[in-house]
Amino acid sequence: MSEYASRSQPLAAAAAGGIRYSSRPLRMPRTPTRKSSATNQADIARAAKVSTATVSRVLNNSPLVREEVRARVSRAMDRLGYFPHGAARALVLKRSWTIGAVVPTLDSDIFARGINALMNRLRDNEYTLIVSSSDYSLETETKLIRRLLERGVDGIFLVGAERRPEALDLLKRSGKPFINAYISGRSDAGPAIGFSNREAAAAIVDHLVGLGHRRIGMFAGITKGNDRAAERLAGVRARLRHHGLKLDPAWTFELPYTVQAARVAFGELVQAGHLPTAIICGNDILAMGVLFEAASRGVKIPRQLSLVGFDNHPMTEHVRPSLTTIDVPADRMGELAADALVAAIADGTPIRSVVLKAPLLVRGTTAEPRRD
Questions:
Q1: What whole-number distance in Å separates Cα of residue 103 and Cα of residue 99?
Q2: Strands across the sheet containing 155-159
Q3: Model-level pTM?
Q4: pLDDT at residue 21 above 70?
Q5: What is the per-residue pLDDT for 18?
Q6: Which fold has domain 94-195+330-355?
């Protein structure tokens, strides 16, 4: 039954009974109006027994205010439930006290750790972090950068250095400080705080070749729109060539960063009956997928297959055998990026690129290849 029908039936019944209804709307009694009771700076000044100019100085963090007076004004604001108007304060100070961040995904421990460290350090400096996810789309990243700039953020944190020319143009024209993370060596894209994905990949190859491996495969991340995955794959290929080896296409996959994708790909290799002696994975999630599928198919790691991940996910120490991996300094990147952005906003300190170490952690999934 429609709403109209359900409402009209009682009226029809009443009409049949001889009751007359007016079609004019009923007039409700008027509620007396009163002036807004919103607390303002004058109220705070009276409560704290100071001038409104002093209240304004407290709100703007002026060093001219004595701590005892600042505390008294703060107590008055708390007591009266006063919250400063953020937009008005931003207009006066020409600062919004917000930082924007665009990451490929939050469904990843390595980015979550970096963002958490960034957020905590920014909070210590009275900044709020706004986080957006591009889902590995450079087009989406460009739109998000524009939106953050339109919101008036004071600086921007980004992942990687590969982006559309219009995104880089937006960043440069805005005059806002920005920083790239999880990457190094791309001065054309702005300052970076990160590590060399190529050198980390080379360290993995050196480790495996040093153990005696010659048949090495790779489960890389999808390289389109992901310069970190591309650098890792290129680093493996280049270092294998250095050792007189090459990456066999039959053992090379570009995969989404999921356990299931790695399990399916490894299952195909097992069914083909021609396994490499070692597999390098573009991140630890892929490596754990290989580890789980190998266990289900009776492939012994590291006795029959050596396996290396990338990132040092917290679970890598707890799986059995524990996973050999690259220790990506996500927390340190977040902290250093926050410090650099805060300094640049405060007094124009130039942001300088920093290259951190990303060491190989040798654990239980790598060993000499079988000789049989």
A1: 13
A2: 128-133, 98-103, 155-159, 178-181, 192-194, 354-355
A3: 0.78
A4: no
A5: 42
A6: Rossmann fold (3.40.50)
CATH superfamily placement of domain 197-328: Response regulator (3.40.50.2300)
Name the residue type at position 59: L
Tally of residues, the chain: 372
- In the chain, residues under CATH classification 3.40.50.2300 are 94-195+330-355, 197-328
- E strand or H helix at 90: helix 86-93
CB atoms closer than 10 angstroms to residue 62: 12
CA-CA distance, 175 to 144, in Å (whole number)? 17
Q: To which H or E segment does residue 193 belong?
A: strand 192-194
Q: Is 81 exposed, middle or buried (0-12, 13-18, 19+ CB in 10 A)?
A: exposed
Separation between Cα atoms, residue 127 and residue 119, nearest integer Å: 8
CB 259 within 8 A of CB 292: yes
pLDDT in the model for residue 89: 58
Encoded tokens for 10: 């009682």
Q: Mean pLDDT for the chain? A: 89
Domain 41-84 class in CATH: mainly alpha
Asked whether 123 and 339 are in contact (CB, 8 A), the reply is no
Quick one: 143 exposed, middle or buried, by C-beta within 10 A (0-12, 13-18, 19+)? middle
Q: What is the pLDDT of residues 41-83, one digit of tens each?
A: 899 999 999 999 998 888 877 778 899 999 999 898 888 888 7
